[in-house]
Amino acid sequence: MNSVPLHVSNFFLAMQAGEPGAAALEAMFAEDAIYEEPFTGETRRHEGRAAIMKAMALGWEMPMEDTRLQVRHAETTGGEVRVAWTCYSPSIPGGQGSGLNRFTFEGDKITSLITTLDQD
Fold first, then answer.
1. Terminal C-alpha separation, the chain
2. How far apart are CA 12 and CA 44, in angstroms?
3. Which residue from 55, 89, 92, 114 puts its CA 20 to 30 A from 62's CA?
4. Number of CB atoms found within 10 A of residue 65's CB
5. What CATH number should be reported for the domain whose range is 6-117?
6. What residue ranges do the domains of the chain occupy?
């Protein structure tokens, strides 16, 4: 496992903080960033920082209890940071879920974040 870059670690910390971490999370994205995520059961694409923050805020409406995120693997290849993770929470069916985040950056700003879930 490669080490997780600091700006990726900070992303996960701000995301897990929920609404109190919103300002820090928002500052991590480029104005024209894109975010693709599957958390409503279908893959949705959000374009621009404001749309991304609106999508993130949906998760704050129903916070997950006792959530813990574990990074299983991280690697940087060709300008992309790939982080495999497992999320543990009694709010998730079966108590856990896992997936992959693929980040691209310009400087220290996220320009693209693609999240996929592992299929069990």
1. 22
2. 20
3. 114
4. 8
5. 3.10.450.50
6. 6-117
Contacts of 109 (CB under 8 A, 6+ apart): 28, 29, 30, 33
| Rounded Cα distance, 94 and 51, in Å | 30
* Residue 64 Cα distances to 2, 5, 16, angstroms: 28, 26, 10
Q: Give the DSSP H/E element, type plus range, for residue 115.
A: strand 109-117
pTM of the entire structure?
0.90
Helix (H) or strand (E) holding 8: helix 6-17
List pLDDT tens digits, range 9-47. 999 999 888 889 999 999 999 999 999 999 888 999 999
The DSSP call for residue 39 is T
